[in-house]
TrEMBL record:
Pfam families: DSBA (PF01323). This is DsbA family dithiol-disulfide isomerase. InterPro entries: DSBA-like_thioredoxin_dom, Thioredoxin-like_sf. Residues 3-204 form the DSBA-like thioredoxin domain. It comes from Mucilaginibacter lappiensis.
């Protein structure tokens, strides 16, 4: 069964949602029979990478909030992340456009490393304060998960996977997806947001049951007659 996940590396709820979904998937026991595909989504495609400011100040300026209000909201999300074992350091988060990170993820998907790419990007952005729009940073992250440095460099210095990222975003729009994370299970059920583990688990189980029934080999109605058995008896 296939599960598609639309996400943006800059989305704090996407990392939290990833952990809750993984918990539910493990509880389901269906990991070996489920294919997960990560899809690109940009929450702020016009964001300019800016190393001179921090994410709290950026949000305050962009949303018209006070700096204290932006910090309070991020503190709340930080507490939510801690509940699922994640460490968020918003004071270190780099204001960076995520388009190249999405192209990097598509390269990783080509090598069956899509999930590893998402994990390392989330950690780099939210925990380590790395610039996910920097080529050298992406090359380092890619090599750490098993990608080839020269191939990463070639991709980042060209427009490779640009169309793939844009296609994912257009597909999300066609499906009516307005925010992330968004999980599509068995091309039938959509789960929006970093839902609680039981919500993910219930939807995984329901989707998997329907998928399994649809793919079950039909049973045969057997009309008995003379035949030979494996032990050589014929009659």
């Amino acid at each position: 069964m296939k599960i598609e996940i639309w996400s943006d590396v800059m989305c704090p709820f996407c990392y939290i949602g990833k952990r809750r979904f993984e918990d539910a998937l493990q509880q389901s026991g269906h990991q070996e029979q489920i294919e997960i595909e990560w899809k690109s989504f940009q929450l702020n495609p016009d964001m300019k990478t800016d190393l001179s400011t921090n994410i709290n100040q950026y949000l305050a300026d962009a949303k018209g909030w006070t700096l204290d209000h932006a910090a309070q909201l991020n503190d709340h999300v930080t507490q939510m992340a801690a509940e699922v074992g994640l460490t968020y350091n918003f004071d270190r988060a780099v204001v960076a456009n995520s388009f190249n990170a999405h192209r990097f993820t598509h390269l990783a998907k080509k090598h069956d490393l899509g999930d590893a790419a998402e994990e390392t990007l989330f950690k780099a952005y939210f925990t380590e304060g790395q610039n996910i729009d920097d080529n050298d940073t992406l090359i380092k992250l890619g090599v750490a998960i098993g990608l080839n440095a020269a191939e990463i460099k070639q991709v980042l210095e060209s427009d490779t996977y640009t169309d793939e990222v844009k296609y994912d975003i257009a597909q999300a729009q066609q499906l009516g997806i307005r925010g992330v994370p968004f999980f599509v299970m068995n091309n039938k059920y959509g789960v929006s947001g970093a839902q609680a583990v039981p919500v993910f688990l219930e939807t995984i189980e329901k989707s998997f049951t329907e998928w399994n029934q649809g793919n079950r080999k039909p049973s045969l109605t057997i009309i008995e007659g003379e035949s030979c058995s494996p032990d050589g008896d014929c009659g």
